[in-house]
Amino acid sequence: MSGYLTAKEVAERLRCDVSYVYQLCRDQRLGHYMLGSHYRIPVEDVQAYIEAHRVCPARETKNPSTASASLAESGSYPGPKAGGLTRSRREQAMREARAACFGST
């Protein structure tokens, strides 16, 4: 898929308000081009944004009350303080993603 979308078209695809799309562009969380005062957003960037914000379903367990305990024991869930992403690591990941999308700033 190639081409460009207006902010209104992106808002329709994301089923959100157009002001949210403008905010994503201003915050450089969504790649875009400015043509005068008009935003043009590549379809590929919209698809990448959607994929980047996909939440995968959690694994099902027989007893939901012990889900976090069994995941912690298996080593696949680091827990909130045992190796999970810290705020500084999240910020670093966001900087790397922006650099990959917009070039180094």
Helix content: 40-55%
Largest sheet: 3 strands, antiparallel
Contiguous helical run count: 5
Integer count of domains? 1
| Main structural class | mainly alpha
Please mark out the parts with pLDDT under 50 across 5 or more consecutive residues, or reply none.
none
What is the mean predicted local confidence, pLDDT?
78
Strand content: 5-15%
Q: How large is the radius of gyration?
A: 18 Å
How would you describe what is shown here?
The protein has 105 residues and is mostly helical. Helix content is 49%, strand content 10%. It has one domain (4-55, 67-102). The protein has helices spanning 7-14, 18-26, 43-52, 67-74, 87-102; strands at 4-5, 33-35, 38-42. The chain has a 3-stranded antiparallel β-sheet with strand order 1-3-2. The longest helix has 16 residues, at 87-102.
Give a summary of the structure in a few sentences.
This protein is mainly alpha-helical and 105 residues long. It contains 5 helices and 3 strands.
